[in-house]
């Protein structure tokens, strides 16, 4: 049994831009519908049951008892993490949901990645579930496949064995056929995460929208082509797009519009950097977020990429402070990335303002 992972991931995009109603997969295996307060991926012939609903505390206990291996619990949790990607909630954890999906998509595009980027994407995918730091440290992904506690593993084979045990000891209310569908969904997702030659193009959700942003969304290689070969056009698009990338505080986001959060409480100094539009077109905002997330992950969180931005965006241009706010607020700009920035010395080139004050304080403690 094969599953159309690309079709199912595109449903997540369509939900994020506001599409309602039920969605039935071309193969009839899945229906995407409202389920338990979210848009869930359910079985086509049993739309009242979600594909991940069989994972309960009892499943963890049963699986570990069958294998006698404490690591089994980690593998069952990974199954839960991968199946959860196909859920969509409108408000709760909306930033984490978007960035987790972003990481999986970028892994699928991995023919463009070096080993460090691939490992970082997989680490963030777990982080945005969210997982504990201990759990994140156990799993990794490189160009040769998956590792557990630093040792290469045949993860698809391990997952296959787990599901075969589930199917043999069928949980109540779940048929063997349904468990086989969930198994295929997890295994095909893992297969897409491994090295592959097949080029991947995503459908842009909805209709219409800015052409260049749509090109980047449907085939991210367009992002790299634009950045490396048409730098002025890249920054023009960035400046036009940034008003729809909402950087807000956690206590000032009643409509769940935030693309990322700069802190727990409102800061008027930061708010002054932005002039946000009164009307938000959800599809355009979603395409902007994908574009800006790529810029932060691949370019801006790297000292050389930040140096280039400071060279291109001249002093006095508010775009500098806007981009720094996006960078310093974004989860992709992790503690390790901040240390790298300080060690490179590029932080000394930052313009005066809130974010330079913050990084100077960190540098003083190192």
Annotate the secondary structure layout.
Blueprint: H1 5-16, E1 23-24, E2 30-35, E3 38-43, E4 46-50, H2 57-67, H3 72-84, H4 94-108, H5 115-127, H6 133-138, E5 139-142, E6 145-148, E7 151-152, H7 155-168, H8 176-193, H9 211-218, H10 221-229, H11 231-241, E8 247-249, E9 260-263, H12 268-271, H13 282-300, H14 303-312, H15 318-329, H16 335-344, H17 354-365
Parallel strand pairs: 8-9
Antiparallel strand pairs: 1-2, 2-3, 3-4, 5-6, 6-7
Helix pairs in contact: 2-3, 4-5, 7-8, 9-13, 10-11
**Low-confidence parts lasting 5 or more residues at pLDDT below 50?**
none
Helix content: 40-55%
- In one word, what is the shape? globular
Q: State which percent range the strand residues make up.
A: 5-15%
Sheet/helix structural class: alpha+beta
Give the rounded overall mean pLDDT: 93
Largest sheet: 4 strands, antiparallel
Please count the beta strands (DSSP E, at least 2 residues each): 9
What do these coordinates show?
- Helix content is 54%, strand content 10%.
- The chain contains 17 helices and 9 strands.
- A 4-stranded antiparallel beta sheet has the order 1-2-3-4, with helices on one face. It has a 3-stranded antiparallel beta sheet with strand order 5-6-7. Strands 8-9 form a two-stranded parallel ribbon.
- α4 packs antiparallel against α5.
Concise synopsis of the structure shown:
Helix content is about 55%, strand content about 10%. By secondary structure, the chain is α+β, with helices and mostly antiparallel strands.
What are the key terms here?
17 helices, 9 strands, globular, about 375 residues, alpha+beta
């Amino acid at each position: 049994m094969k599953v159309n992972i690309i079709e199912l991931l595109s449903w997540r995009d369509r939900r994020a831009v506001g599409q309602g109603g039920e969605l039935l997969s071309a193969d009839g295996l899945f229906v995407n519908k409202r389920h338990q307060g979210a848009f869930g991926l359910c079985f086509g012939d049993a739309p009242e049951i979600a594909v991940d609903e069989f994972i309960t505390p009892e499943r963890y206990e049963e699986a570990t008892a069958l294998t006698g291996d404490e690591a089994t619990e980690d593998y069952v949790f990974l199954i839960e993490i991968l199946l959860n990607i196909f859920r969509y909630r409108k408000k709760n954890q909306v930033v984490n949901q978007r960035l987790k999906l972003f990481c999986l998509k970028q892994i699928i595009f991995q023919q463009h990645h070096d080993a460090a980027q691939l490992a970082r994407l997989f680490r963030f995918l777990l982080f945005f579930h969210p997982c504990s730091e201990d759990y994140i440290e156990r799993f990794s992904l490189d160009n040769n496949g998956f590792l557990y506690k630093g040792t290469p593993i045949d993860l698809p084979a391990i997952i296959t064995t787990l599901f075969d045990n589930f199917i043999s000891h069928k949980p109540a209310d779940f048929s063997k056929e349904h468990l086989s569908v969930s198994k295929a969904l997890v295994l095909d997702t893992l297969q897409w995460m491994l090295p592959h030659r097949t080029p991947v193009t995503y459908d842009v959700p909805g209709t219409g929208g800015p052409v260049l942003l749509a090109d980047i969304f449907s085939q991210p290689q367009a992002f790299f082509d634009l950045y490396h070969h048409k730098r002025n056009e890249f920054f023009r698009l960035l400046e036009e797009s940034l008003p729809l990338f909402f950087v807000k505080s956690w206590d000032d986001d009643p409509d769940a519009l935030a693309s990322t959060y700069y802190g727990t409480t409102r800061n008027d100094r930061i708010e002054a950097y932005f002039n946000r539009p009164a009307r938000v077109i959800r599809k355009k905002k979603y395409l902007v977020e994908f574009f800006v997330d790529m810029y932060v992950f691949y370019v801006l969180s790297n000292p050389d990429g930040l140096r280039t931005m400071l060279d291109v965006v001249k002093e006095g241009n508010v775009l500098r402070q806007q981009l720094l706010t996006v960078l310093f607020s974004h989860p992709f700009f992790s503690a390790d990335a901040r240390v790298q920035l300080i060690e490179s010395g590029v932080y000394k080139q930052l313009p005066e303002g809130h974010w330079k004050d913050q990084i100077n304080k960190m540098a003083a403690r190192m």
